[in-house]
Amino acid sequence: MNKTVLITGASRGIGKACAKLFCENGYNVVANYLNSERDAVALAEEFENILPVKADVSDEYQVAHMIELANRRFGDIDVLINNAGVALQKLFTDTEKYEWDRLFDINVGGVFNCTREVAHGMIRNHRGKIINISSIWGVTGASCEVAYSATKAAIIGFTKALAKELGPSGISVNCIAPGIIDTDMNGMIDAETMEELIDETPLQTIGKPYDVASMALYLASDSASFITGQVFGVNGGFLI
Ligand code: NAP
Asked: Which residues carry out catalysis?
């Protein structure tokens, strides 16, 4: 029987690349989205085994409803990829409380809501893989991205602690910390800054969504069965 993966924020960027790659590799895919309905529907038209589900990951009730729809269509979730996220580039001193809260609600609250909802089934089945998408800035911190960096660091702590708690239940929890990846999220980076970032990267390029998706596919596979609580940099050597 095909395994089922739930990918949050699967309408664009890294999440969309994950949805395509997992589908091509025989998974049933629950592709969560919020605003980009047209992209999510187009994805589902391209692949038979993709179920697009609209839900705001920061809302526990919408998340519960999403999991209910997923279970009804595909049964229990085998793999959860907590990918949905938003960024904020601003001086810390200019950051408003509501902006701080919004980042935490989506980037951290979303991980909490989806993981808690899916964990029950995984514990019952004594198997499961949880893959959280953090960021290189959650490891190093980024100037003018304090709120974002703080949310991504929280995901690393969450990953390590949950790996210890769920390991005895046969569930692995890992984290990917991508470097600069070519998606809409980096649309605000000007050409000059992008050149500098590329120059600072040993592999002399920025990453593609597929680079992150293929690491997620590996972590979801049986080949990664002895790996948990780890943070994997997919960053072209930017941070070693
Ligand atoms: P992106 O292209 O901006 O896509 C973000 C995705 O998240 C979209 O599918 C969006 O859905 C979804 N999303 C946002 N808020 C949501 C919410 N409240 N509920 C449900 N879905 C929501 O971003 P990306 O670059 O692919 O980033 C994906 C993840 O990788 C993020 O966690 C990001 O922090 C992390 N990351 C990215 C980079 C990078 O360089 N790109 C580097 C390190 C880490 P809709 O469009 O449907 O609203």
From this structure: 148
